[in-house]
Amino acid sequence: MVNPTRGVLYPARLPQFHRLPAPPEVRHLVAWFWIPEWDIEPGRSSRQEVVSYPALNLVVEPDAVTLSGATTRLFHRDLSGRGWAVGALLRPAAVPALEPDPAALVDTARAVAAPELHDGVSAAMSTGEGHRERAVAAFSRWLVANAPADDDDARGANAVFDALFGDGAALTPEEAATRLAVSVRTLQRLTRRHVGLSPAAMIRRRRLQEAAQRVRDEPAVDLASLAAELGYADHAHLTRDFRAVLGIAPRGYRSALRE
């Protein structure tokens, strides 16, 4: 199921925002599509803060197509004026065709020369009701023509991501390696080749997302119990990770949500 706001720290501040499921023909390539649209009055801006998924995103905007690497820190963007974006959260199988060295793209982005993708998505976004679905369809057609088919290598790469970030995901790299019947070293090679991060970094990202969402959804949650549930050594470990990436402790985040 597509979670509409996981990873978004302050959903109440969002402009119009949608996550759409990937059509069947690209489910091996895309986890989901995300589409923000905004129209902010002159002189004002809206800061969006996100603990991004440990994955690459291919993004179409009115003036560019970009490929963003996985991130290791809090990402933010200040929105102003009027605009939109259509992004695809890429599954690992899609990455080799778009970026031979995803580790070099961590915490940064590069322009992609894809005029057909840009023109098709932009045309769809300029239409009336149903424009998001038409944009996703145009994006999917481009991916089918330019990314790998669903083969054994693609399924193997995606299985790694699912073991580290899917439902019931592993709490440690060792657990993930056991599930996949590979060595930890092989697991490390696979994640660096297809995501650019180590398995441990991907797990840390997932735990932070889950911690932030639980604090947001359950304001009274006991933080020590939450830390144990998510595989942290103790409450202090959770607080250190939370503060290192988000710049704020869990208790401070809980207070900020009330403002």
UniProtKB/TrEMBL annotation:
Keywords: DNA-binding, Transcription, Transcription regulation. Residues 155-256 form the HTH araC/xylS-type domain. It comes from the Bacteria. Signal peptide: none annotated. InterPro entries: AraC_XylS_family_regulators, DUF6597, Homeodomain-like_sf, HTH_AraC, HTH_AraC-typ_CS. PANTHER family: HTH-TYPE TRANSCRIPTIONAL ACTIVATOR RHAS-RELATED (PTHR46796). This is Helix-turn-helix domain-containing protein. It comes from Microbacterium sufflavum.
